From TrEMBL:
<feature type="region of interest" description="Disordered">
    <location>
        <begin position="1"/>
        <end position="37"/>
    </location>
</feature>
<feature type="transmembrane region" description="Helical">
    <location>
        <begin position="217"/>
        <end position="246"/>
    </location>
</feature>
<comment type="similarity">
    <text>Belongs to the glycosyltransferase 87 family.</text>
</comment>
<dbReference type="Pfam" id="PF09594">
    <property type="entry name" value="GT87"/>
</dbReference>
<feature type="transmembrane region" description="Helical">
    <location>
        <begin position="252"/>
        <end position="279"/>
    </location>
</feature>
<feature type="transmembrane region" description="Helical">
    <location>
        <begin position="162"/>
        <end position="182"/>
    </location>
</feature>
<keyword id="KW-0812">Transmembrane</keyword>
<feature type="region of interest" description="Disordered">
    <location>
        <begin position="504"/>
        <end position="527"/>
    </location>
</feature>
<keyword id="KW-1133">Transmembrane helix</keyword>
<feature type="transmembrane region" description="Helical">
    <location>
        <begin position="291"/>
        <end position="310"/>
    </location>
</feature>
<dbReference type="InterPro" id="IPR016570">
    <property type="entry name" value="UCP010361"/>
</dbReference>
<feature type="compositionally biased region" description="Pro residues">
    <location>
        <begin position="1"/>
        <end position="23"/>
    </location>
</feature>
<keyword id="KW-0472">Membrane</keyword>
<feature type="transmembrane region" description="Helical">
    <location>
        <begin position="463"/>
        <end position="488"/>
    </location>
</feature>
<feature type="transmembrane region" description="Helical">
    <location>
        <begin position="66"/>
        <end position="86"/>
    </location>
</feature>
<protein>
    <submittedName>
        <fullName>Glycosyltransferase family 87 protein</fullName>
    </submittedName>
</protein>
<feature type="transmembrane region" description="Helical">
    <location>
        <begin position="391"/>
        <end position="412"/>
    </location>
</feature>
Length: 527
């Protein structure tokens, strides 16, 4: 996008090159949001069920007072969480009979760990029993475990169902918070790549408002079955404000939530690499270092007391991750099943292979983030003043690629890990088409996984054959790999990126499209 006429010139020599943009810049009032039925083919097709796509004579912005986008989106998310609650309810009482947890696909770690972590005895995580999760998730589990244990003791009843329902309610609140924050990110849709300490507000908000993107998270089919398998929604809810505050130019607040997210689930640590790469590219290193340092301090403050008081319990999480063999459904499991390669039974060998491939992937993503579109964006390729054209890779795009490759090459890939990728995928590539294909592959794997668990657990021949399970795991792997390829394509060709909404280059001889709302020119009079 070329700079507007009011775009500021080069920053003065005394201006700090790494100062964050001011956070008080607000989107102009009355700026209409992008209509999904005009920007997405799948949304346009689906709109036929409710009257068709947004028309030329529709009110823009719509004149609604209650059913504004955030309320419609949150209602959709609450319906999805209610369906998940019903889907897991048969397993909430415990005492699973005849492999009910697999035949009904209602297994949840939350209910299983009520006894495995001795929460049913009132044990305090780390103090009385080592926990296999990072500290903040352990505290989350422990606080709700203590509440359920004490309620069960007073009422003289089993606290297990109470524990599960308490966790479900809090996790649904976390899920709703993640949806609301993602909506805010896309409603503002600010640019963070503009050079200079005082960017023009018109450039900051040159991308269209896209509040409806949050519907992809609220209505994602896989949420119906994975929302309460484990405590991952807690970490997702903590990670989303990181992107919001970074977009608003508040690195300390961004680092605060990043540190909390890492203390809940370690995958959020992977966001720091893309953050620093883009900071180096844009010569705005100070804000990135502030966010990273704040995250490190927050993580240390949360982990330090536990590591000091109960070091063996604290180390349990790290020991388990290094000792675990190849898990069900990973790429390594599929490769072993297809090739029969015996070395893949060796966890140390797989560890080395995984670390090597993941390191190479990170180097490739770093090069992509640093060099993609550098000639267009100015800098080291001959332009004295960096351009304001919207071509710099977006933080969410690089974060999605790093987390996705971590799962693609990792030796553990639980079915609920899809929740890590969901908001990142929406932020990186908010297009319904292949998103639904990926969701279908995830659902195929989810139900195949429990069919495989039934096959190895029951002794009466139930379950699914190994070949079908390998096909499901391979389809999930390939779907995520294709999502990565599509994100890379949009980094290399920014005009394909729906978030930027850059005008397409017209083909030779093709008529130019009029902007939405612009009247057609009057026909010329006949000579």
């Amino acid at each position: 996008m070329p700079p507007s006429a009011s775009a500021p010139g080069p920053a003065p020599d005394h201006a700090p090159n790494d100062a964050p943009p001011p956070s008080g810049i607000e989107r102009p009032a009355g700026d209409p949001p992008a209509a999904p039925t005009l920007t997405d083919r799948v949304a346009r097709f689906a709109s036929g069920l409710i009257g068709g796509p947004f028309g030329e004579h529709a009110a823009d912005p719509p004149r609604r007072t209650f059913w504004i986008p955030i309320r419609v989106i949150l209602l959709t998310g609450l319906i999805a969480f209610a369906v998940n609650w019903l889907q897991k309810y048969p397993c909430s009482a415990g005492g699973w009979v005849d492999w009910q947890q697999y035949t009904g696909a209602c297994y949840t770690d939350i209910r299983a760990l009520w006894g495995a972590e001795r929460l049913n005895e009132g044990a305090v995580p780390y103090q009385d029993h080592p926990v296999e999760y990072p500290v903040l998730t352990g505290w989350f589990m422990g606080v709700l475990g203590q509440i359920a244990y004490r309620i069960g003791s007073v009422a003289n009843t089993d606290g297990g169902p109470i524990f599960w329902h308490l966790n479900a309610v809090v996790l649904f609140v976390c899920g709703a918070a993640a949806i609301a924050v993602l909506h805010r990110i896309r409603r503002d849709n600010r640019r963070t790549d503009i050079p200079g300490p005082n960017p023009d507000p018109a450039l900051v908000h040159s991308r269209p408002s896209r509040p409806w993107d949050a519907m992809m998270l609220a209505a994602a089919p896989v949420v119906l079955v994975t929302a309460t398998v484990n405590w991952d929604l807690f970490a997702v809810a903590l990670s989303m404000p990181f992107f919001l505050y970074w977009q608003r130019g508040r690195p300390v607040m961004a680092g605060l939530f990043l540190g909390l997210a890492v203390a809940a689930k370690f995958y959020a640590l992977l966001f720091i690499g893309p953050l620093l790469i883009l900071a180096l590219r844009q010569k705005k290193l100070l804000p990135a270092l502030q966010a990273s340092a704040t995250a490190a301090v927050v993580w240390a403050l949360i982990n330090g007391p536990v590591a000091y008081l109960w070091p063996e319990s604290w180390m349990r999480f790290f020991e388990l991750n290094s000792e675990r063999p190849v898990d069900w459904g990973t790429g390594w499991y599929v490769l072993r099943g297809v090739t029969g390669w015996e070395r893949l039974w060796d966890s140390e060998f797989v560890n080395d292979m995984y670390l090597g491939l993941f390191a190479l992937s990170c180097l490739g993503i770093a090069a992509l983030g640093y060099f993609a579109q550098r000639r267009t964006a100015g800098g080291d390729f001959g332009l004295k003043t960096p351009s304001t054209e919207d071509v710099v890779p977006r933080l969410a795009q690089l974060c999605f690629l790093v987390v996705a490759t971590f799962l693609l090459f990792g030796k553990v890939w639980s079915q609920q890990y899809v929740l890590w990728l969901l908001p990142l995928a929406v932020l990186a590539r908010p297009k319904w088409g292949f998103f639904l294909v990926w969701q279908a592959a995830e659902l195929f794997y989810f139900f195949s996984f429990y069919g495989k668990m039934l096959q190895v657990s029951a002794e009466d021949g139930r379950g699914i054959p190994e070949g079908l399970f390998l096909a499901a795991a391979a389809s999930r792997w390939l779907a995520v790999a294709v999502m990565c390829a599509l994100v890379v394509q949009e980094i290399l060709i920014p005009r394909l990126d729906a978030v930027r909404s850059l005008p397409k280059r017209p083909s030779r001889g093709a008529p130019l499209q009029r902007p939405r709302g612009e009247a057609a020119p009057a026909p010329a009079a006949a000579p």
